Amino acid sequence: MLIDPMDTQLPAEPVKAIERPQIVTQSLLYLDGVSVSFDGFRAINNLSLIIAPGEMRAIIGPNGAGKTTMMDIITGKTKPDTGDVIFAGEVDLTRLDETAIANLGIGCKFQKPTVFESHTVEDNVDMAVKADRTVFGTLFQRRSAEIARRVDEILGIVRLGDHRKRLAGDLSHGQKQWLEIGMLLAQDPKLLLVDEPAAGMTDVETAATADLLKDIAKTHSVVVVEHDMGFIRELGVKVTCLHEGSVLAEGSLDQVSSDERVIEVYLGR
Amino acid sequence: MMLTRFLLEKIDRTGWIFLVLLALAAVMVPVLNLAVPPGSPFHVSNTAVSLWGKYMTYALLALAVDLVWGYCGILSLGHGAFFALGGYAMGMYLMRQIGPRGVYSHPILPDFMVFLNWKELPLTWWGFSSFPYALFMVALVPGLLAFVFGWFAFRSRVTGVYLSIITQALTYALMLAFFRNDMGFGGNNGLTDFKDILGFNIQSQTTRAVLFSLSVVALMIGYLLARAIVTSKAGKILIAVRDAEARTRFLGYRVEHFKLFVWTVSAVMAGIAGALYVPQVGIINPSEFSPANSIETIVWVAVGGRGTLVGAALGAGIVNFAKSWFTGAFPQGWLFALGGLFIVVTLFLPKGILGTFTDWWKRRGETREPPAGKAVGQPAE
Amino acid sequence: MIRRPGLVALLAALLTVVLLAPPSARAQDAAPLIQRMATETFNDIAGAVAALATSGSPRAAPVIEALRDNRLVYRQADRAVFIREASGSFVSALTGEPVTDAGTTRPVRLNNAVRRAIDAAMGALTLMNPDPARRAAAAEAVFKSRDASALPALEQAIGQERDARIRILMEEARAAVVVASPEANEADRITAIGVIQRRGDQDALRMLGSLPATAPPRVREAAESASVAIRRTLAVWEAVQNVWYGLSLGSVLLLAAIGLAITFGVMGVINMAHGEMVMIGAYTTFVVQQVLRTMAPGLMDVSLFIALPMAFLVAGAIGIAIERLIIRHLYGRPLETLLATWGVSLVLQQAVRSWFGPTNREVTTPSWMSGSFEVGHLAITANRLAIIIFAAMVFAALLLFLKRTPFGLQTRAVTQNRRMAGAMGIRTNWVDAFTFGLGSGIAGLAGVALSQIDNVSPNLGQGYIIDSFMVVVFGGVGNLWGTLVGAMTLGIANKLLEPYAGAVLGKILLLVFIILFIQKRPRGLFALKGRAVE
Amino acid sequence: MLDVKSVDLHYGAAQALREVSVVVEPGKVTCVLGRNGVGKTSLMRAIIGHQPISGGEILWEGRDITRMPPFERARRGIAYVPQGREIFPLLTVKENLETGFAPLKRADRTIPDDIFSLFPVLKDMLGRRGGDLSGGQQQQLAIGRALVTRPRLIVLDEPTEGIQPSIIKDIGRAIDYLRRKGDIGILLVEQYLDFAEELGDRFYVMERGRVVVQGLKGEVDRDALHKSMAI
Amino acid sequence: QAQETIKVGILHSLSGTMAISETTLKDVMLMLIEEQNKRGGVLGKKLEAVVVDPASNWPLFAEKARELIAQQKVAVTFGCWTSVSRKSVLPVFEELNSILFYPVQYEGEESSPNIFYTGAAPNQQAIPAIDYLLAEGVKRFVLEGTDYVYPRTTNRILEAYLLSKGVKAEDISVNYTPFGHADWQTRVAAIKRFGSTGVKTAVVSTVNGDANVPFYKELGNQGIKATDIPVVAFSVGEEELAGIDTRPLVGHLAAWNYFQSVDTPANRDFIARWRAFKKNERAVTNDPMEAHVIGFAMWVKAVEAAGTTDATAVRRAMIGIAVPNLTGGISTMMPNHHITKPVLIGEIQANGQIQTVWQTPGTVVAQEWSPHLEGSRDLIADHRAPMNCGNFNVRTGRCGGAQR
Ligand SMILES: Nc1ncnc2c1ncn2[C@@H]1O[C@H](COP(=O)(O)OP(=O)(O)OP(=O)(O)O)[C@@H](O)[C@H]1O
Ligand SMILES: Nc1ncnc2c1ncn2[C@@H]1O[C@H](COP(=O)(O)OP(=O)(O)OP(=O)(O)O)[C@@H](O)[C@H]1O
Ligand SMILES: [Mg+2]
Ligand SMILES: [Mg+2]
After folding, report:
1. Engineered SS bond to E58: which of C83, E88, E269, E384, CB 3.0-4.6 Å?
2. DSSP 8-state code for residue C52
3. In whole angstroms, what is the distance from residue A184 CA to residue A128 CA?
4. Cα–Cα distance between E327 and E317 in angstroms, integer?
5. Which of A38, A193, A225, A246 to mutate to test the pocket of ligand 1 (most atoms within 8 A of CB)?
C-alpha cells in the first residue's frame, strides 16, 4: 500500500547527471555560496564550508550569526534561497526532505532540547536506534536483544540509566539535553550536528561531553556549535567563526581567538 | 501463528476484561433473546438487541476515531463520512436485494429511482447485488477516500485544526452531495425499507441476533487490531508524531506514511461499523454525513477517555445509552442532562471515564502516596 | 427627443375616446361604483376600483385609499359602505360625512387582482401629490399598469413636475402607455421604445416583452432590438451584482466568524458554543424590541442601536461566566474545550428553546433598513448595506483594540504563554475572562445583525458555526486580516459560483476548493511563517 | 527580603524539593548551584508561583506569599528569567518587552535605555517576532524583559545559557551594577561556576532536592563547591 | 390501575432542526388527549400520552418508534414531520403492526397499511394552487424548492401537469437550494430576472422550514411584490410567518387545507381552546395541527367503533370514518388511508395571517399515486378486503411486493 510516493518524487539516489569537482566529491559536507533570508533579513550570506569525512569541526560566532540556521539548512528544516549543499560528495540535500536527509545519515541535536515527552526515556532512545523505519517494518518489529543492549549502552553513556522508566517530559532541562545527545548517538549517523551540547551542564559534565564527542569523532564526522570556549579548547579541533551569516575566521582555536575581529564581535575584551 | 501473536501479545488487563465481556455478550445476548421466553426476568428484549447492536457499531466507530485522535493526534471531524460511506455501500446491497418487491414492482430499479423517473441503474450501483462485491466496497470506498485525502493532506503537512477543518469540509461536502437527488443515492430520504440480507429476513429476530453478534465480533477484532497497532513500535512512533512531529522526521521516520497508514485503517474500521449499522437501524441517509455527527463521535471518545481504546468504546456506549434513555425519560429537557454530562466529564474527569478510573485504580495500589491534603500552595495559572 | 406634434395628436385622440364615451359612463355616479365594492367577489371589486378611478368623482381617491389600507368596510345588513378613520369612527364612503352607528361591519377584502387595480388607480390619482415619493410611486404605478386613461393626468403632471428625477419617471410611464397603446402611431411607439430602452432595467424588459403580438412589425422589431440592448448591459450589471452579493455574504460570514477569530483564533479555545452566542445576540434583539414595543413604541426605529450594546453585554456576560466556570479549568487542554463547549452549546440551545419556545421569534426591521435603492442597475438592499458597513466597523474597532491597547497585547501574551504572562505580572485570569467575553460579545453583535436576515430561532447559531470555523481556518488562525480576507473570498466565490452551479453544487465546489487550498497553504491564507510558529 | 522556609515540592508522587530554605537579601547576589536535575529550577518555580509547594512557606518582604498567584508576586516586584527563555513567540521584540508594563503605573511605562545599551541587538530587532530570534538573542530578550518591570527581586535561571562570551561578561557587569544599587535582590541559578563564583555573595549548593552546602562568599570552601558539582 | 390507561405515543422532534415545527404538534396532541380524558377517555379508559424526543435524527425516529411500540406498548402513535422520518419508522410500524398518524403534506407515492395520512397529497394542495394561478393568467412558473424528495416529487408532478396545460417548457424554471439556505440574494434576483419577460410569472415554492424566513425577508427587501410576481408556498403557514415582518409580503399566496383565519365556529372554538391551553393569547394554529385534530378524532371514533385498541381492528374500523374538520366540512378516511380535504388558497396579510381568497367547493380525495408520474400511474391503494393492498397495479392486476 505504501510504496513511498515521496521517494519516487524526491530522488534519494545521487544526482548523476552533474559532474562534480574533486573538492566536492571528497568532502562529506560541502556548502557553497549558500544564502537564505527571512523577510528581507539575510541570516546566511554566501556561506561556504567544507567538512571532510571523519572531521570534527567547532563552530562559534556571535548570537544571531547564523549557526543554527546553517544547521537547519543541512537538516532540511530550512531551504536555502541559493547555493549548494552537497553531502558525501554526491547528494544534493536541498532537494530532499528532513526524513530523507536523516536516513542518509545526518543526525542532530537541537539547540532547544526536543524529546518525546509522553514516552519513557528508554523508548525515546529505542526509537532513535538504527533499525527499520518503514511502517510495516515497525509494525511487526519486536525489540531484539541487540537493540536492547544498544539502548542500555547509550543510557549508560548519558547517565540516565536510573531514569529509564520515567517520562521524558518529567526530566529537568539538563537531563533532556543529555537524553537528546543519547538519541543522537543511538541514531549512529555519519554526520552529527550538535547545537550547544554543553548549555546547562556543569563544568564537569561539559568536560565529559567533550570527551564523548572526541570519542565519537574517531569514527564519525561531527559539527559542533558552542559558546563555551573551555569546551572548544578541550575539543582541540579546527574552529570556524561565523558572523552575519558568513565565515569570519577559520583555523585553530588560538588563531581564531586572537583574531581582532573575532575578539571585537564575539569574545569581548 | 504470527498473526495471533501480533494481535494478542500486548493485551493488558483492562483489555482482557473488555474482550471477555464482549465475548460473553456475543454469545449470551442472542441466547437470552431467542431461547429464554419473554416473561422470564433473564429475557433480553428484541428492542434491546437492536439497540445494543447499534451501540456496538458506534463503539467500533469510536475506536476508529480514538486510533487516529488518541494516538496520532489527528482530530478528525469527518469520520462520520467513512461510517456513512460504509453504510451506503451496505445500504445499496440491501436495496438491490429488494428486487421486484418494491412498491412499483420494478424488476431492477429501487423505488426512489422509479418515481424520480430514472430509466436505468446508474453505474455506481452496478455489482451491488452481489454480497461479496458490496463487502469489498464497504472497505474499499472509505479506505480509498481516506487514502487519497490523507495522501494529499499529510504530504502537504496539513496538521492541527487545519486538518480537522478540512475533514469537516469533506464530510460536509459529501453530505450536500448525497442530499442531491441527482446523485442517485436516494437524496434526503436515503435508502430504507430493506427486506432481507443474504436471503434472511432482516426483520426476523434471529437475523437481528446474528447481526448483533457480528457487531460484537467486529468490535472485538477492531479492538485487537487497534491495540496491536498502538502497542507495536509503529504505535510508539504515532505517539511521537503526536507529541513532536518534526522531531520524528529528523529521526528518519516518514511521518506521512505512518499517518496515512492509521488514517486509512481507521477509515476502513469506520466503514465496517457503518455497514453493520445500516441493517440494524434500517435506514441510511445523508444526515449521517452531517458534521455534527462526527463531532458527537469525538465527544464519545473524550467522555470515555482519549487514547485508551477501551474507553472510547465505553464512551460510545455510555453516551448513546444516556441519549436513548434521556430522550425517552425527559424528552423536554434531555439536552440539559446530556450537555451537563459533557461539561461535568471534562471538568471532573479530565482523562475521561476510563482514564480517571484506571488512574484511581493505580493510585489505590500505591501506598507511598503523599497525603493529598498536604498541598498548601495553589497552582495559579 | 419626443416628437411633440405626434404626441399631441395621440393625446387628442385618446381624450376624444374618453370624452366622447357615452355620457352615462362618464358622468357615471360614483355611488353605484362604491356600492359595488360591498361584495365578496374580487373581480367585481377590482372592476369597481378601475371604474371609480376614471369616474372623476372626488370620492375616488379617499375610497380607494381606504380600500388599500384595509379601512373600507360595509354593513352586513344593508351593504352600506363606510370608511374607518384612524380614530376608529366611521364616515360614509359616498359622502364623507360621519355616521354615528355603523352596525356590524365587514371589511372589503383585497386580493392581488384588486391590489393591482388599486395601484393602477392610485397611480393616476396621485400623480400630482405634493409628496415627491408618492408622485414617484404613482409614476411607477402607471408605468406598470400602462393604463391609457392615466395619460391626460400624466401629461399634466409632466408639465408641472419640477423634480428632474421624477419627471424622467413620468416620461417613462408615458412612454410605457404609448408603447402599449394600439391607438398610438408607429413612430410614436418607436420613440417611446427609445425612452424605455434608456431606462434599461428589468421592468423595462418586462414592459417591452409584454408587447402584444398584434403590434405592428416595425414596433415589434424596435422593441426586440431594445430588449437585446438592455439585456446586454444588464448582463454586465449582473456580474457587478454578483460581486456585491458576494461582499454582502462575505460580511455576514465575517460578522459570524470574527468573534470566533478571538475565542478560537486568539485564545485557542475550540468554541463550539460560538453559534449560541450569536443566537443569544439575536434573541436579545427580540427582547429589546418586545420591551420597546410596549414601553416606547416611538423608539422602534432605533431599536437596533439599543439592541447592539445590550447584545454585546448579554452575550459578553454569558461568555465571561462560561470562561470562569468551565474554560479556565481547561487551558493547556485545548481539545477538551471542544467537549465542554459542545455541552454548553446543547444546554444554551435547550435553555433558549424552553424559555422562548421552539418557534421563530419576530424581529422587525426598522424602516431605514428595509427596501432597496438602485445605483445604476445595481439593486442595493438597505439591510445588506447596513450589514456591510456594520461588519467593517466591528472589524476596524476590534483591530484597533487588539493592536493599539495594552489589553490587546496582554491578551496575546497570555494566549501564547500563560505561565510566563503571569510571571510578567499580567492578571491572566482577568485577561482570559475578558477576552472570552469580548469574543462572545462580538458574537452577540453578529446576532443583532443576523436577526435582520435570518430566523431568530434556537437553531440560528448552528447554521453559522461550520462556516465560521471554515472562514477562520481558511484565513489563517490567529490573524484578523486573514479572517477578513477569508470571509470575503468565500463570500464572493460562493456568489460567483451560485448562478452557474446552483446553490448546492456551488457550496460543494467551495468546500472542495477549501480542501485543495489548504493543501497549498497548510496554515491558511495569511499563514505565519518562520521559527516563531513551530 | 525573600525568605524561603523549609519548602517541599512534589511533582505528582515524586518529591523534587525537601525542606529547602533559602534567604535572599537586597544588594546581594544569591547563587544556587547544583548538578542536573537536583531541583534548582523547581525551587525557582516555587518562588515565582509556577508550582505549588507541599510544605513550608515563602515570605517576601515579611509577607507570606505562599498562596499568591504568580501575577500578584510579579506585581510585588519579583521578576523571573526562566530556564528555556519562554519568549512570547508571536509578539515582536518590542511587544515582548512591553509585557513587562503590566505591573507598572502608567507613568512608568517606558523601556529603560539601559536594556538597549546592555543588549544592543534588541534595539536593532525591535520589530522582529520574538520566536524568530536566535537562541542567544532570545535569552537576552528574556533578561531585558524582566528588567522592564523594575523588579526588587530578580530570579535568574541559568541566564548565560547560549549567550556569546562578550555578552556574558556584560551580563556579569550588569548584575554587578544592579547589586551595587543596593535595593535589588538577585537570585541566580548557574552551572557556569567561574561566573557564579565571581558574582555570588552567598551560595547554596543543592543535591537531590536538598541544600547540602551553604554559606557566604569566602566562607564556603571552593573545593566543596567544585566537588558538589562533580559527577 | 396503571393498566387501565391507553397509551398514545407522540413522536415529534423537540430538539434539533425540526423542533421549530414539530413541538407545537406535540402540544396539540397533549391538549387533545387532555380534553378526551375530560370527556371520560376512550372505551372507559383514560388516555396517557407518552412523549419521546427523536431529536430531528432520522435513525433515532426508528429507535424511538420501536421503543414506543414494543416497550411502552402504545396503542397508536401520532408523529413525524419530514418524509425521511416517516420512511425511517415505516418498517417498524409494519413489522410490529401498530398505527401511525402522519399529519403533514407530503409527496405521496406511498400507502402503508399501518399509516394514516392526514396531511395533503400533492393533488390536495399543489395542483389546485396551480389551477388558481393559471386562472389568474400566470403563464410562466418558477418552481423553487429545497433539495429533497417532497419538492422534487411535487415539482415533477407539477411540471407534468403544467405541460399538459399548455405551458411551454421554457416557461418553467426549476431550482433547488440546500436545507437551511440562508442567503437568497442570488436566487431572488434570478427570479426577478425570470419574471421580467413581460409574461405573467409566479413562483411555486416548496422551500422548506427555516429557509423560508430569509427567503421571504429577501423577497421583501428586493421588492418583489405579489402584484408583480406572486409566490405561492405549500409549507408556509401562520407559524412560519410569525417570525417575519409581513408588510412587504402582503398578497403572496399559500395553498393549504387550513388557515387560522378561517372563520367557522369550529375553528374559533379550537383557537380559543388552544390559546387557553398554551396560556398565550397570541398562540397561532396551522394546518398540520388541524390534521392531528382530525386524525385524533378519527382514531377515537374508530376505537369506539371497534371496541378495542387492537391495531388490526382499529385499522379496519378507520376506513370510512368521517369527522368534521375545522374549515366547516367533513373529512373522511378513504380506503387509501388518506383523508378528504378542502383546498384553500390564501393571501398573506400585513398582520401575519393568511386570508382565504379561493377555495374548492367541496373536499378533494387524495391521489396518493400520482397520475402524472409514469411509474405510479397504474397504482391504486385500497386497504379494505379483499384487495388489502397499498400499491395495487391495475394493469397487471397484482399487488406490489412491498405488501407482506
Ligand atoms: N524565521 C526567521 N525570521 C526572521 N529572522 C530569523 C528567522 N530565523 C532566524 N532569523 C534571524 O537570523 C539570524 C541567525 O539566527 P541563528 O539562530 O542562526 O543564530 P545563531 O548563530 O544560532 O545564534 P545563537 O548563538 O544565539 O544561537 C538571527 O538574527 C535571527 O534573528
Ligand atoms: N514537570 C515535571 N514533572 C515531573 N518531574 C519533574 C518536572 N520537572 C522536573 N522534574 C524532576 O524534578 C527534579 C528536579 O528538576 P529541576 O528542573 O528542578 O532540576 P534542575 O536542578 O533545574 O536541573 P537542570 O540543571 O537540568 O536544569 C528532576 O529529577 C526532574 O526530573
Ligand atoms: Mg543558535
Ligand atoms: Mg534547571
Report:
1. E88
2. H
3. 7
4. 24
5. A38
pTM given for the model: 0.91
Taking the C-alpha atoms of residue D144 and residue D79, their distance in angstroms, rounded to an integer, is 11
User: Subunits touching D (CB < 8 Å, at least 3 pairs)?
Assistant: A, B, C
Tell me which residue of A183, A267, A244, A232 sits closest to A56, measured CA to CA. Answer: A232
Question: Would you put residue E344 in left (φ > 0), alpha (ψ -120 to 50) or beta?
Answer: beta
Using a CB–CB cutoff of 8 Å, tell me whether B373 touches chain D.
no
- Residues of A with CB below 8 A from B262's CB? none
CB atoms within 10 A of CB C404: 10
Count CB atoms within 10 A of the CB of residue C23. 9
Q: All domains of chain A, ordered by start, with CATH?
A: 17-98+237-269 (3.40.50.300), 105-223 (3.40.50.300)
Give CA–CA dist A65/C458, Å, rounded: 59
From D102, D130, D131, residue closest to C424, measured CB to CB: D102
Q: Which helix (H) or strand (E) holds C316?
A: helix C303-325
Query: CA–CA separation, B73 vs B81, rounded Å?
Result: 19
Best A71, A173, A261 residue to mutate vs chain D (most D CBs within 10 Å): A173
Kindly determine whether residue E148 and residue B189, on different chains, have CB atoms separated by under 8 Å: yes
Question: Does the beta carbon of D153 sit less than 6 angstroms from any atom of ligand 2?
Answer: no
| Chain D residues contacting C via beta carbons under 8 Å | 48-50, 69-71, 74-75, 79-80, 82, 86-91, 95, 98-103, 129-132, 145, 149
Residue nearest to atom 5 of ligand 2 (CA): A170
For residue E112, the distance in angstroms to the closest alpha carbon of chain C comes to 31
E81-116, pLDDT tens digit by residue? 998 999 999 999 999 999 999 999 998 989 999 999
Q: How far is residue C52's CA from residue D2's CA, in Å, rounded to a whole number? A: 100
C112–B contact, CB cutoff 8 A: no
Contact E210 C459 (CB under 8 A): yes
Q: What would the grid cell of residue C83 be?
A: 370608511
Q: Give burial (CB, 10 Å; 0-12/13-18/19+) of A109.
A: buried
Mutate-to-test residue for ligand 2 from D9, D20, D42, highest number of ligand atoms within 8 A of CB: D42
pLDDT digit string (tens) for C378-404? 888 888 999 999 999 999 999 999 888
Residue type for position A43 = A
Q: Residue A110 Cα, ligand 1 centroid: separation in angstroms?
A: 14
Pocket-testing residue among D22, D31, D40, D85, ligand 2, by greatest number of atoms within 8 A of Cβ = D40
Q: Which string of DSSP letters, residue by residue, matches B80-106?
A: HHHHHHHHHHHHHHHHHHHGGGSTT--
* Local confidence pLDDT in tens for the 534 residues of chain C: 444 445 455 444 444 444 444 444 444 577 888 888 888 788 888 888 888 877 777 888 888 888 888 888 888 888 888 888 888 888 888 888 888 777 788 888 888 888 888 888 877 777 877 788 888 888 888 888 787 777 888 888 888 888 888 888 888 888 888 888 888 888 888 888 888 888 888 888 888 888 877 888 888 888 889 989 988 988 888 889 899 999 999 999 999 999 999 998 888 888 999 999 999 999 999 999 999 999 988 888 899 999 999 999 999 999 999 999 999 888 877 778 888 999 999 999 999 999 998 888 888 888 888 888 888 888 888 889 999 999 999 999 999 998 888 899 999 899 889 899 999 999 999 999 999 999 999 999 999 999 988 888 898 888 889 999 999 999 988 889 999 999 999 999 999 998 888 888 999 999 999 999 999 998 888 877 777 666
Assess whether the C-beta atom of A240 lies below 6 angstroms from ligand 1.
no
Q: Where are the domains of chain B?
A: 2-292
Cβ neighbours of E374 in B, within 8 Å: 117
